[in-house]
Amino acid sequence: MKIHLRQIPQGGTLHVEDAEDPRFLELEEVEARPVSPVHYALDVGLSGGGIFATGQLRLRVRFRCVACLNEFETDLIIDPFAVQKELDGRESVDLTPEIREDIHLALPAHPRCDAGGRKTCPARFSQAPADDTSPSGNAPWSALDKLKTEKSEN
Ligand SMILES: [Zn+2]
């Protein structure tokens, strides 16, 4: 994602809006699969020997839910995206590392398909609580056994 400094108007900002192949994100290591290009809409300007860019990044990513292990897709939106970078004398500035870093930071460490309340994770009710040490833990089953016994006696 390169910005040519010549294109930025003096004292103004350059609006850049496009989509890029998501392969540069290198998300494979974090088990997130981009299923759309990286859309960006940025306003880029110059100030005090540096370049700044503000705007929005957006892409669709496929995750695997940590609870039910089902895959699900979600839109990852970074808004506002803001970056400031010093100029190093080159004619263009590459914002790729900054975009990649911000997207990586926005990824959930433990993705869940029910994040945001869009749906109910199927694992939510089938998971036994790990700290259940109460002696009545088997109560529903013993009640069921009793019912069976009573039925067979009739
Ligand atoms: Zn789930």
Keywords, please?
two-stranded antiparallel ribbon; binds zinc ion; single chain; 154 residues; alpha+beta; 7 strands
Q: What order do the helices and strands come in, and which of them pair?
A:
Blueprint: E1 2-4, E2 13-20, E3 33-34, E4 38-47, E5 50-64, E6 71-86, E7 92-94, H1 96-106, H2 139-153
Antiparallel strand pairs: 1-7, 2-4, 3-5, 4-5, 5-6
What does this structure look like?
The chain is of the alpha+beta class. It has helices at residues 96-106, 139-153, and strands at residues 2-4, 13-20, 33-34, 38-47, 50-64, 71-86, 92-94. Strands 2, 3, 4, 5 and 6 form a 5-stranded antiparallel beta sheet that branches. Strand 5 (50-64) and strand 6 form a beta hairpin. The protein is elongated, with a radius of gyration of 26 Å. It starts with a strand and ends with a helix. The structure holds zinc ion. Zinc ion is lined by residues 65, 67-68, 70, 112-114, 121, 123.
What is this entry, summarized?
The protein is of the alpha+beta class and 154 residues long. The protein has helices at residues 96-106, 139-153, and strands at 2-4, 13-20, 33-34, 38-47, 50-64, 71-86, 92-94. Strands 2, 3, 4, 5 and 6 form a 5-stranded antiparallel β-sheet that branches.
